[in-house]
Design goal:
about 425 residues; alpha/beta; 6-stranded mixed sheet; 19 helices; globular
């Protein structure tokens, strides 16, 4: 019991509420005087936008889930069952008869749309949970890595994943497990025994990112099966992180669905958090002329990001970069539209801004057919660009002329 308590004592106390929000937050240093610096200095500092982190409900849920999963893993270290399991794992390495004794600790998934910030939330949570990158216990002397993060191989290679786990452990502990496994030309079955032994001795929790790679690979089920064996033979918690495209894969069989119970997140809704995030982000301006964010700009950002926070950051970053390089030196709707049309063109088919117009009895006024840019003060109608309408027509298989009639005066000239 003292052995287990020594591990738990090395973990920082679990945080919650306002204290947790404060600890998770990252606000890069910023001073208004930066706007008067040289172009080069401002462009370099502009990258601070990507360091900004504003915690959401997702952040706090992921923190709690990972903390408790790590705690359950550490509680199994040094127990009598764990000691017996070490002998079984040794038998597996030697290709002898073996069996799982310790049983699984925890297996769960964190599934979310790409770009909503789940990887950042996991990273921030791990930084808080693992203040010490390696936990050292003196009696008996042992080193444990609280969390090992690996990526699922693009071809879902079981052997590739197991070797990557050994390589990550070697990086932290200065050991030579990876080198020994390669030198011995270990088979996949032997590697599972070896990695189970290493995990039992030196790993608190394993996070496998990009798990959606299993979906289109013939080795997908084999990789999930090997992770299941690893859980049962090491007692550690395993978290699988991926995008919603892996949901059908896990739903196809009971044993897969049981291993994938966890947290799921979609695109951010348009709520108080999104408004707050945009407001904070808009305060980091590196152009000469400062502007204030308006409800119209916030709505435009949501429409042109589909609630994906990474896209919001890219829009504001690229709009400022273009404004500085062009000499316009202002973050306004014109620069935001240019950033969306020129820098994010590959994302248009995924975002598809939905522009709602109030029904009118009179013919709508003709908007600018070139770029669809309107001023910040214009509030009666939303800004609509021809490129946005073209994307919508292509995505929904609609008549382009009919859509143009909704926003422009279209005259047909006989030839």
């Amino acid at each position: 019991m003292d052995y287990i308590e020594n591990f738990i004592k090395e973990l920082p106390e679990m945080k919650s509420g306002e204290e947790l929000i404060e600890e998770l937050s990252i606000f890069p240093d910023y001073n208004d005087s930066i706007r008067q610096e040289s172009q080069t200095e401002r462009l370099m500092r502009l990258s601070d936008l990507y360091r900004l982190y504003v915690p959401s409900n997702m952040s706090t849920e992921i923190y709690a889930k990972l903390y408790l999963a790590l705690l359950r893993s550490l509680q199994k270290k040094g127990t009598q069952v764990a000691i017996r399991q070490k002998y079984q794992n040794y038998n597996r390495i030697q290709n002898q008869e073996y069996r799982g004794i310790i049983g699984g600790s925890d297996s769960f998934t964190i599934i979310g749309t790409s770009g909503i910030g789940k990887s950042s939330a996991i990273s921030r949570a791990i930084e808080l949970i693992t203040e010490n990158r390696v936990i050292e216990i003196e009696e008996p002397y042992v080193k444990v890595i609280p969390c090992v993060i690996v990526q699922c191989p693009f071809d879902s290679s079981v052997k590739g994943l197991l070797l990557e786990i050994l390589r990550k452990v070697d990086e932290e502990l200065g050991s030579s497990y990876y080198k020994n496994a390669v030198r011995a030309r270990a088979t996949t079955d032997m590697l599972i025994g070896s990695v189970s032994q290493v995990a039992l001795n030196h790993i608190g929790m394993l996070i496998v990112d990009e798990i959606q790679n299993v979906v289109n690979s013939k080795n997908g089920k084999s990789l999930i099966g090997s992770l299941t064996q690893l859980i049962n033979n090491s007692g550690i918690s395993i978290c699988m992180v991926g995008t919603p495209e892996c949901n059908p894969f896990f739903e196809q069989a009971m044993q897969l669905a049981r291993r994938s119970v966890g947290l799921q997140y979609q695109n951010m809704p348009y709520d108080a958090y999104f408004e707050s995030f945009c407001k904070i982000l808009f305060e980091y301006q590196y152009v000469r002329n400062q502007t204030e964010i308006t409800p119209m700009i916030t709505e435009w950002l949501y429409e042109h990001s589909a609630g994906i926070l990474s896209v919001v950051v890219s829009l504001i970053h690229d709009a400022q970069e273009m404004a500085i390089l062009s000499g316009k030196e202002i973050l306004d709707m014109e620069m935001l539209n240019q950033a969306y049309n020129q820098r994010l063109s590959f994302l248009h088919s995924y975002i598809q801004p939905s522009v709602s117009q109030k029904k009118q009895t009179s013919r709508p006024k003709k908007k600018n057919p070139v770029n669809g840019i309107c001023s910040v003060q214009e509030t009666e109608k939303e800004c609509v660009s021809v490129s946005d309408l073209a994307v919508r027509a292509k995505a929904e298989n609609l008549d382009m002329v009919a859509i143009l009639r909704e926003f422009y005066t279209v005259e047909e000239v006989a030839v």
